């Protein structure tokens, strides 16, 4: 056993740290904020950050940091551990680090895409040139993606797509859809679905914004009305989309912005050490101490699953249990951090960004709202516990 | 024992429910909450005309002379429908304080107007360095001839932006016992040396900062006895805490009703999600949480109505119900999934309110500590 | 609304209190102990208490206190509220109060029994002359009683019973079985079951003890080998046993020994006020204060469901949700009281009865074990939440 | 990073597992635990022969010279199989204290015998009025010529009934700083002025009371420096806490394995109970609890092995793992239902041990407070 980074990893961590401190615009901390574990306040999906984010991604791309986990022959460093280190550091600073293209589209194409597709898409993604949105959920297919009703029928060399997607995070600032659609209506639910790439500019594709409860436009509804794409945009084999999607789940987990938890905890500790209430330092209150100690312990456990998942992936193992635990605990920690922070800060926690008396830049009030999305998005906690039990522990399905 | 509301209370409950449903559609409520002017003066007058403002005001001052339990019934329904406006501030923090400790002149001056919806009040208590520990109250009022000069900053004053009068809790004397030397002063909100700033919060719930910059008020404006106001403040905080509990239970019930209905309709994996054991258990737990806590609420309210000391019961209710409201709305979101995470949906309104209610008038830790004291610890 | 007892109820409470204080043998407190919410340390099922218990029951019977909830024409006072008061006071003192006969057999016969059966059994039960055991569970029918495999076939005017019961609390000190058996093997699972009364002395009935984890013999296995009983011992109509059993559930809930919670809390409060640890009174430790305050609040809620269930039953309502919540919370409170008490007492809590340093008469170590039985016995928490959801809240079954 | 045991550790783990499974069937374990003489001297010798007692003892004293991580691997398996006996007391409380602060003579005298299984030790620290706050230690040792005279009562001393020597933590001087003036003395258990009484506990786990009635020991029996033993005590308590964590994780894993297997087999409502969502979620939560906490355990153990300060990690592990063990065995009982509630079943053994382990060497509150201090609070 060894719980230290290698020298090379330590050096890499330092390099990322130096880079991000230098590159982030002054006052960045005040501008953006993402509550870890939540999906509602993701700055990369906000239109006003698009330009900065695009530029940043190209810079990261030029350093080779958008494909750290990919094999070296595709420009990567074949190290999920490095990717995890990178995400940890970047998310601590609220900096751009990973998106749907780098964490889901790229790895899936690597795994199941044709040579042609690899050649076409991987370099663009690694350079940070293209952004994708995830076209999975539909009004009647949320937890149950196999109920996907968006249809794509063949017509010559093309597919014609009709249907509707929802909760499409960042569709409005992305270039392409990574779309799940039904290509065989006669097959069983899971078996007739395909993954495909759709250019956002294709005629018939309409995007309508949804405002989430954080007051942010991150989600969209996307309508497909006779949208025509070339068949070669199907990823891997036709009708295997659902299985690809399941396999890709593990990639998704490791992009958790785990460093943001670390940051919040540090800022809270600092706050209670500096703040007097009712004549005593908050940090001397044993109830406050218990809450912060518990947060620190739970975060340490989350890091355990985080590093272990990365390590297992580098061993070539698909860690169903570990990566599920990571998602589950991450979203629960998002909630328990928000709850504990609110309880520690008292009414000050409710103040919003910009208020004169607001502590921690107003992140707690935003986080309190956003944190309810954690156990809902990207697989509800109920679904994930079920996956752990059946696929991970071998318990029988119904 | 009798666990049922009486006939009048049932009628009150039904009529309030009906009125709010009709007059306060959720679209209006959302608009009101998002605006700085979070209530409708027209509807405020209608509510007054229905006797809501004067529910607890004795008939001799133009009120209805109802019981505290009646008020709880009313407010539970207001919580169910998220009724906005400075009701609790005016009726409890203001009206009941005047009723408890005002002199006859003050009562005659204020209570009839309050009943008619013509005057709005609030109590300014918390400060940057204390939520409400009398030892750390730093706003001072110093007698200068016939006037008190008030200086300092109050924080998180509810609905101060609407108020015609602030009831300012100030230190008028340094004493060895911190609970002495505290006085309540009636301050005209138009006093030029007060500055009220609306704070932006999670629920945009009209919590304000008030800076008193040597504001002068006539010494006739003292409410109750100089230096001896702290017991009144404590009593009012207890009542306000319990009324807030009523609002929270109402809100939790609404969130539960919405989630239950949705769980019966929403189909995933070819069956209603309410047929899944995990969702069933969530809903069973929510039901238990709400109904168990409602007992605490009504027992405390009944004691208050019966003029029996209810400090322990109020502390129990407040320590528990804020937590329940938060849990119920969090599970409500979990059951609704994505659709509940949108601005158009109503669930987040309840969720926002739950944390505010939990912290208003003493949070869980505060009230658990009170329960411990009541246990003799 | 009214949260006070009537004058009559208050007087009754006082009468019970005076009675129990006078009747309990000296040192009773040291001898017996029952952890509320648990099923493993019930003194009434222990052989060494049988004589005292039998005598006590006859005394209570002579005062009319064993049938407080029954209609007046059968000797009762038609007041579930009084029954609840009685149980509360008696359980506070660890005194005999109710058993299977008075709380389940009697009320069920009242509801569905024939006139003949009523005449035969109700007076005996009300007098405290007979004791019953509950023959529901089997090795393969625990949570799922409808899987009952014990069979009773008709032969002339008799039934011949074969099969096995388990977890039969107190069978070894009782006189009769209140037995669930399959009388129609061709019907659907729920529909072929009957309730019947079997004399323990009938040939072919064998009782084998089971020692529970508290080290107490309260449970038994009972074997039926061609046990012959007269058909008239069938309760109500044949093949309706499962439905009767469901209806009777509510009666069972109100016998919770709720006063024992009150007693434990009082003793803990007393202990922390008298005990110094590490130089300070335990009761001044804010973590201890929080735990005791939380216990007090949860107990108050339990009382809420308790009185409300009794009140609803007196209104003629069958309170599915309330009585289920009562059982659920009662068993959970049994666990949380045991957990909190252990945490407050530290290693002293682990000491067993009789030890020199033991606090609270050793009840905490016993309770810690017994409390795991609460959410298992008489319907698991999982089953009860399901009943609340489907029968109480109208959610769909599968 | 590397999350795997090395080759030697994997072999150790497998051989320990195999040995215990073979030599300690559950029936024997139940017998041993229920008797006052809770271990088998024959098996104790076998364990010694396998090198378990001397695992951490340097080769120069006849030991194996293994790492702390090796010990954790060993004890995790011991916990899995509920291996009874005074192992932790002898090896950690006794052996490691001698190793850390004994002089050469003492080491040469004790450690080889300990390694061969010929001598058993324990540390007497807690007292009726303190679990372990040095300010309240009341057992005193007073120098009288060449001897220390020890007086007072120690409580909850593990395995003192088996021990050949007590390492008694006594106050030798009153000082303004309570952490000074504490000394460890090696007391022969046969000393006629000591009285050891076995306390009956939930797990019958051989916690003892020792009364020192002016027991005299030669001053050569001081272990380490007079008056300056507290840092040693703290260090030993940290190690003992972590070793106990290893035992608890092993036990939790065993309880989980049993429950998982049962959930796959037990049929109710015509399907395996493990197909019910509620049971599935219980088991998923148990898996997360155990595996999340095992990370804390191994990280702390690796730090100790690497001679990196691990106070924070140990406190995190101990604060969490006791709770996890208790939760896992409680859910284990829930999954087994009635059958698990019988004496013949094994689950209750784990359940009994879980509360004892949680409280040994500092409970959750104690260690959470330590974590808070490590956070700089």
Describe this structure in a few short sentences.
Chain A is an alpha+beta fold. Chain A is 44% helix and 14% strand.
Please describe what this structure looks like.
The complex is a heterotetramer, with two copies of chain A (398 residues) and two copies of chain B (377 residues). In chain A, helix 4 packs antiparallel against helix 9, helix 8 (259-274) runs antiparallel to helix 9 (286-314) and helix 10 crosses helix 11 (363-370). In chain A, strands 2-3-7-6 form a four-stranded antiparallel sheet, with no helix packed on it. In chain A, strands 1-4-5 form a three-stranded mixed sheet. Chain A is globular. Chain A has three domains: 7-131, Butyryl-Coa Dehydrogenase, subunit A, domain 1; 133-244, Butyryl-CoA Dehydrogenase, subunit A, domain 2; 251-392, Butyryl-CoA Dehydrogenase, subunit A, domain 3. With 398 residues, chain A is α+β, with helices and mostly antiparallel strands. Chain A has helices spanning 7-23, 28-31, 50-62, 80-92, 100-112, 115-127, 241-253, 259-274, 286-314, 320-345, 363-370, 381-392; strands at 132-135, 151-155, 158-165, 176-182, 193-199, 205-211, 217-230, 276-277, 280-281. Chain A is 44% helix and 14% strand. In chain B, a hairpin with a 7-residue loop joins strand 6 (194-199) and strand 7. Chain B has eleven helices and ten strands. Chain B folds into three domains: 7-119, Butyryl-Coa Dehydrogenase, subunit A, domain 1; 122-228, Butyryl-CoA Dehydrogenase, subunit A, domain 2, CATH 2.40.110; 231-374, Up-down Bundle (Butyryl-CoA Dehydrogenase, subunit A, domain 3). Chain B is an alpha+beta fold and 377 residues long. In chain B, the strands form three sheets. Chain B has a four-stranded mixed sheet, with helices on one face. In chain B, helix 5 (87-101) runs antiparallel to helix 6 and helix 9 runs antiparallel to helix 10. Chain B is globular. The chains are: A alpha+beta (398), B alpha+beta (377). Chains in contact: A-B, A-C, A-D, B-C, B-D, C-D. At the C-D interface, strand 8, helix 10, helix 11 and helix 12 of C face strand 9, helix 9 and helix 10 of D.
């Amino acid at each position: 056993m060894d719980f230290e980074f290698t020298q090379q990893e330590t050096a890499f961590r330092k390099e990322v740290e130096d880079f991000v401190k230098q590159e982030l615009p002054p006052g960045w901390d005040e501008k953006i904020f993402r509550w870890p574990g939540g999906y509602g306040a993701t700055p990369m999906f906000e239109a006003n950050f698009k330009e900065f984010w695009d530029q940043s991604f190209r810079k990261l791309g030029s350093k080779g940091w958008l494909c750290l986990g990919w094999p070296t022959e595709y420009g990567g460093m074949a190290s999920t551990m490095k990717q995890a280190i990178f995400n940890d550091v970047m998310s601590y600073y609220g900096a751009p680090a990973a998106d749907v293209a780098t964490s889901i589209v790229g790895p899936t194409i690597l795994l199941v895409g044709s040579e042609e597709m690899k050649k076409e898409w991987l370099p663009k993604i690694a350079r940070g040139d293209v952004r994708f949105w995830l076209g999975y959920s539909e009004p009647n297919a949320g937890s149950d993606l196999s109920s996907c009703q968006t249809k794509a029928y063949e017509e010559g060399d093309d597919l014609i797509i009709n249907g509707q997607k929802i909760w499409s995070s960042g569709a409005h600032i992305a270039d392409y859809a990574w779309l799940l659609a039904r290509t065989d209506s006669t097959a069983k639910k899971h078996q007739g679905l395909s993954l495909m790439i759709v250019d956002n500019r294709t005629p018939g594709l309409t995007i309508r914004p949804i405002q989430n409860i954080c007051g942010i436009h991150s989600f969209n509804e996307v309508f497909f009305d006779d949208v025509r794409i070339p068949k070669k945009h199907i990823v891997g084999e036709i009708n295997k989309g659902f299985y690809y999607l399941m396999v890709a789940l593990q990639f998704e987990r490791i992009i958790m912005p785990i460093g943001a938890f670390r940051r919040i905890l540090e800022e809270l500790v600092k706050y209670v050490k500096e703040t007097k209430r009712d004549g005593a330092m908050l940090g001397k209150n044993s109830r406050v101490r218990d809450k912060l100690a518990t947060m620190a312990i739970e975060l340490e456990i989350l890091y355990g699953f985080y590093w272990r998942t990365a390590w297992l992936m580098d061993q070539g193992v698909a860690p169903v249990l570990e990566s599920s635990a990571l998602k589950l605990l991450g979203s629960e920690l998002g909630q328990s951090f928000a709850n504990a922070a609110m309880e520690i800060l008292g009414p000050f926690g409710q103040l919003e960004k910009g208020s004169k008396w607001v502590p921690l830049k107003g992140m707690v009030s935003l986080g309190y709202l956003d944190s309810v999305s954690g156990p809902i998005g990207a697989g509800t906690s109920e679904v994930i516990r079920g996956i752990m039990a059946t696929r991970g522990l071998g318990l029988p399905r119904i | 024992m009798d666990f049922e509301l009486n006939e009048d209370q049932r009628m009150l409950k039904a009529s309030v429910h009906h009125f709010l449903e009709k007059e306060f559609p959720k679209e209006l409520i959302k608009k009101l909450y998002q605006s700085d002017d979070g209530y409708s003066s027209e509807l405020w007058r209608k509510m007054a005309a229905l006797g809501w403002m004067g529910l607890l005001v004795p008939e001799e001052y133009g009120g209805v002379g109802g019981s505290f339990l009646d008020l709880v019934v009313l407010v539970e329904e207001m919580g169910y429908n998220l009724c906005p406006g400075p009701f609790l501030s005016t009726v409890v923090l203001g009206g009941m304080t005047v009723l408890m400790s005002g002199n006859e002149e003050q009562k005659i001056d204020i209570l009839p107007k309050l009943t008619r919806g013509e005057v709005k009040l609030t109590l300014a208590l918390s400060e940057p360095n204390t939520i409400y520990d009398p030892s750390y109250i730093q706003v001072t009022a110093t007698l200068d001839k016939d006037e008190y000069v008030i200086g300092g900053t109050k924080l998180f004053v509810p609905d101060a932006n609407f108020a015609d009068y602030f009831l300012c809790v100030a230190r008028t004397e340094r004493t060895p016992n911190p609970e002495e030397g505290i006085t309540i002063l009636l301050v005209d909100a138009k006093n030029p040396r007060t500055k009220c700033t609306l704070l932006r919060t999670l629920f945009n719930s009209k919590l304000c900062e008030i800076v008193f910059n040597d504001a002068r008020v006539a010494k006739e404006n003292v409410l109750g006895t100089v230096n001896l106001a702290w017991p009144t403040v404590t009593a009012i905080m207890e009542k306000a805490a319990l009324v807030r509990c009523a609002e929270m239970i109402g809100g939790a019930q609404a969130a539960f009703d919405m989630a239950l209905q949705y769980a019966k309709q929403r189909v995933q994996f070819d069956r209603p999600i309410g047929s899944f054991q995990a969702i069933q258990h969530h809903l069973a737990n929510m039901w238990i949480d709400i109904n168990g806590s409602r007992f605490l609420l009504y027992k405390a309210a009944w004691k208050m109505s019966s003029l029996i000391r209810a400090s322990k019961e109020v502390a129990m209710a407040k320590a528990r119900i804020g937590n329940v409201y938060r849990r119920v709305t969090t599970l409500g979101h979990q059951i609704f999934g994505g659709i509940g995470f949108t601005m158009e949906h109503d669930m987040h309104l309840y969720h926002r309110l739950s944390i505010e209610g939990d912290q208003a008038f003493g949070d869980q830790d505060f009230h658990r500590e009170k329960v411990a004291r009541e246990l003799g610890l």
